[in-house]
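Hey, quick one: can you model this chain's 3D structure?
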Amino acid sequence: MKKKIIFIIILGSIFLGCEKKKVEKIEKKEKSTVETQIAKIENASGFIDVDGVIEAKDTKKIFVDKKLKVKEVYIQEGDYVEKGELLMTFDETERNKIKRTLAKEEINLSKLKRNYNVAKELYKIGGTSSNDVKELAEEIKIVQLNIEGYKEDLSKTAEKIISPVSGTVISLYAQDNYSVNTDEPLLELADLSDIKILLEVPEYNIKDIKLNQSLLIKPEVFEKKKSFQGEVIKISRISRVSKTTSENIVEVEVKPEKEIPYIIPGFKVSARIYTENKRPEVLIPDRALNYEDGKYFVYVQNENKNIEKQYVEFEDIKGDKVIIKNGIKEGDIYFLNPRKDIKNS
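Sure thing. Here's the predicted structure for all 345 residues.
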């Protein structure tokens, strides 16, 4: 029994010893991960991360002017169509009704014109009054106006849709037996060989965006693992509400230095736009900042190699660095990722 107890005690001691070594090893590892850096003067460059989308530069939305009924659709989304190709037809009931009414009015006009000519001859020999002639002339005018209206109505009553351009069907709303809403397009065509990249820049960041500014474009088709150099080529002069974030944004068009493969309209992208202040400044990574009682400070190493808090004033330059305005000077040693329990060794 005593041997068994001694054996258990020995095992327990070994276990506690192992655990102590493990803790010491972890603590030692934690201490070794604390980094220091020397404050340097650099050009104050930062960056803004934004999202965007690929769009076709030239798109054509096709509407009709009347609430018709689609008879048959001959295309699908993604189809490439040639200019002049038949895309869809409409039910002819409404169109035939207008044609019949128009034909009746044209017959009526012909009859009125004959009566008018007879009335004019009778008036010459006193067989009718001038009022009768005048009334017939007015009836002719009214019928002529009606005929113009029916012809205009017939021209707006589409019989079919012919493709106005060559391109790809990127959106198709109409279907067989579809009742047309004149406020919405039936379909949308695009030239997919000519695309543009539009970024959504929040309005509070637009002051930092300039033409020809450099950036990195990261299409989601590459899962953001591949980036392409580019530059800002156009900044919109109006603001709108983002469809994704619901905040006010300004659209910024950018152009890659070389063609990006595999991207098509509708694909999403992200981008990092670089901002730059040409004045040399003391810069440090923003993760070196600590916050306490309404003030920011940085842990620094003083002349005696002791650790102390140094309160700082800084300017955020967008990105992962800040400009130090007061508190740290060039050559000072600061802690990049200090733990809360950091202390002098």
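One thing worth noting: The radius of gyration is 39 Å.
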